[in-house]
Amino acid sequence: MSSSSQVLESWISTYCSLLGHEYLAEVSEDFIEDDFNLTGLSSGIPMYKEALEMILDIEPEEESDEDQEDEEEDDDDDPEKLAYRRAARKGQRGQPDIMKIETSAELLYGLIHQRYITSRAGMGQMHEKYELGHFGVCPRILCQGCKVLPVGCSDSPGEDTVKLFCPSCFDIYNPPNSRFHNVDGAYFGTTFGSLFFMTFPELQITSSAADLNSSSPARSAPPPEFNGTSIANFAPGLGRGKIYEPKIYGFKVSERAKTGPRMKWLRMKPEDVRDLDECRRYHAGGGEDGDEQEEAEQEDAEDEQEHVKQESVDKRKKAPMRRRRMGSGASGVGTGSANGANGGGG
Predict the structure, then answer these.
(1) CA dihedral in degrees (229, 26, 100, 38; nearest 10)?
(2) Separation between Cα atoms, residue 295 and residue 36, nearest integer Å
(3) CA-based angle 120:122:123, to the nearest 5?
(4) Which one of 36, 67, 219, 296 is CB 3.0 to 4.6 Å from 63, fit for a cystine?
C-alpha cells in the first residue's frame, strides 16, 4: 500500500480494539467535543487537558515565550505553582511522561463511555452488540442461554470490575474470560443495565419467550405487558420449575439439612406477574375512595378495640365491689343463723 492510501487509526478505535475491551463502544468525537457531556469530569482526572487531547488526537500547542513569561508573572505569588509549571515545561521540552497521560486518557474515556452508552447513539451501539451476542450468555443452566449485558456495581472508578447482568434470573456474574477481569465496572455504571431493557422492551430474552409469543392465538396482537415489559420476558428463568432442587436417591433434601437449599425465595415469582402490579390493585380497590374506606374501617376497628379494652377495665374495677358485697351478705346470713340457733336452743 502506498503512503497516500494509508489512514491512521484514531485513538478511540485503537483503544476499543485492544484485547479485553470488546465490551466497550466507540464513543463518537461529537459527543466528546460537547462540553455539556463532560461536566464534572475535569476535577477528578489528573492531566485532564492532555488526556482529552490524546483521546481526540489533537496535537498539543506549544506555548510562546511571551505566554510563558505571563504565566510566570501570574504565579510569582505562588512558588509551588511556579515550580510546577517550570517542571512541566522541562518535561515538554525534554521527554514527556506519556504513560501518565495515557493512564489519564483511559480513565477519562471510561467515564465518558459510562455517559455515552445511556444516550440514544450509545444505546444503539450496545443494542447491536447485544443482538450479535458479543457479551456472551448466562452461565446458569436454567436460564437456557439467555444473553447477558455488561454492567457495573458502582459509578465510581476503582471500586469493582465489570459484571454481566442476566435479565432472565436478575443476577450478575463475573465474565468467564479472565481478560475482562481488569476492566473497571464504572465504565458501564449502574444505570445502563436497567435502562437498556426499558428502552428495548421488545427484545426476546430467551428462546422460550420467543416461542411463547409466537404461539399465541392471535399472532397479530401484541403480547401482554406488565409495566411496559412483555410478560414472557419478565424473569423467565425464575419461578416454579426453574429452581434447582438437590436430591439424594430421588428424595428431596430438606432445607434444614447442612447441604439443603438456601433462600429459595430469591428465585421465586408468582404464577401471574401481574399480581405484582400495585397500581392495578390500587385502582381495582377504588383508588382514593378505597383508601378512605380502608382508613375508616381501620378507625372503626381501633374504636372497637378501645371499647373492648375499656369494658375489661371497668369489669376489673367492679369486681372488688362485688366481692365486698357478697362477703358482707354472707357474713350477715351466717350470724343470723347462728343467733337463731342459739336463740332456739335457749
Answers:
(1) -60
(2) 49
(3) 65
(4) 67
Residue 47 · residue 104 · CB < 8 Å: yes
Count of beta carbons in the 10 Å neighbourhood of residue 102: 16
Q: How does pLDDT run across 185-234, given as a tens digit for each residue? A: 999 999 999 899 888 888 888 765 444 444 444 444 555 666 666 677 77
Domain boundaries, the chain: 11-62+72-116, 121-207+224-233, 239-269, 274-302
Distance of alpha carbon 307 from alpha carbon 305, whole angstroms: 5
Cell digits for 337? 343463723
- Which residues neighbour 195 within 8 Å (Cβ) at sequence distance 6 or greater? 118, 123
Residues 205 and 242: their CA atoms lie apart, in Å, by: 15
Query: Which grid coordinates are listed for 52?
Result: 482529552
* Predicted confidence (pLDDT) per residue in 155-189, tens digit: 999 999 999 999 999 999 999 999 999 999 999 99
pTM for the model: 0.65
3-state SS, residue 184? strand
Q: How far is CA 326 from the centre of its chain?
A: 72
CB atoms within 10 A of CB 301: 10
Please report which helix (H) or strand (E) contains residue 149, including its range: strand 149-151
Set of cell numbers at residue 295: 382508613
Question: How far apart, in whole angstroms, are the C-alpha atoms of residue 245 and residue 228?
Answer: 32
Task: Name the nearest CA neighbour of 144 among 127, 125, 167.
Answer: 167
For residue 172, give the amino acid letter: I
What count of Cα atoms within 13 Å lies in the side-chain half-sphere of residue 26?
Answer: 14
The three cell numbers locating residue 176 = 468467564
For every residue of 90-125, DSSP letters joined together read HHHHS---HHHHHHHHHHHHHHHHHHHTTSHHHHHH
> Element (H or E) spanning 251, and its range?
strand 251-252
**Does residue 250 come out as left (phi exceeding 0), alpha (psi in the -120 to 50 range) or beta?**
left
Q: Which of 227, 40, 196 is nearest to 119 (CA)?
A: 196
Cell readout for 204 is: 426476546
Q: Report the top-level CATH class of 11-62+72-116.
A: mainly alpha
